[in-house]
Amino acid sequence: MNFWEYLGTRHQQLLTDTYQHASAVFQCMVIATLLGVLIGVISYRSGWGGSLAITSTSAILTIPSLAAIGLLIPLVGLGVPPTVIILTLYGLLPIVRNCIVGLRGVDPALVDAAKGIGMSRTRRLLKVELPLAWPPILTGIRVSTQMLMGIAAIAAYASGPGLGNEIFRGLASLGSANAINQVLAGTVGIVILALLFDAAYVLLGRLTISRGIRA
């Protein structure tokens, strides 16, 4: 059975795995974005605070993803919980770093002008600083998403959802008739999803970043 015949006979399962993979990455990216921006907002004004935030989230990425999932299994069990925890934690660094860099890069004159017209610190943050820092934050989100697309495949080790199940089944049965087809189907599916998500972020950037800031 060639690859295209394999896709034809397994298309329903592959579509289900693709949807679960995309859903897991999307939901974890929402959580990671909220946490990452919150950490960035709390720490960007302090030199040591920003360094601590970046160093801490960097340290998470030094832990091999397979080992991290293995350590979580005794604590939270199999399936969705370890997948959500791992993907959320691994997605933090680019968002936190870019949020801090973006907020620190806002022109102080604009912040002073906002202060001069009576804006509170919260309003300055929401109306001036975060909108101006949004381009680098969005770049961090894009980088995180590309990372998590691949890491999500490892979640199959803990019975997590997604296309990693195809890859693991293929690797576990190397030498059988469809082993290579399974690995290839899972891998190609992840690449296609990554490209689709990135295209969506490009569109989001065009809709949410003003031409003046892009220029």
TrEMBL record:
Pfam families: BPD_transp_1. Keywords: Membrane, Transmembrane, Transmembrane helix, Transport. Signal peptide: none annotated. It is a multi-pass membrane protein. One of its GO terms (biological process) is glycine betaine transport. The keyword Nucleus does not apply. It is found in: Cell membrane; Membrane. One of its GO terms (cellular component) is plasma membrane. Its main location: membrane. The chain crosses the membrane at residues 24-44, 51-73, 79-96, 132-159, 179-204. Residues 18-201 form the ABC transmembrane type-1 domain. CDD domains: TM_PBP2. The keyword Hydrolase does not apply. Gene3D superfamilies: MetI-like (1.10.3720.10). Belongs to the binding-protein-dependent transport system permease family. PANTHER family: GLYCINE BETAINE/L-PROLINE TRANSPORT SYSTEM PERMEASE PROTEIN PROW, OSMOPROTECTANT IMPORT PERMEASE PROTEIN OSMW. This is ABC transporter permease.
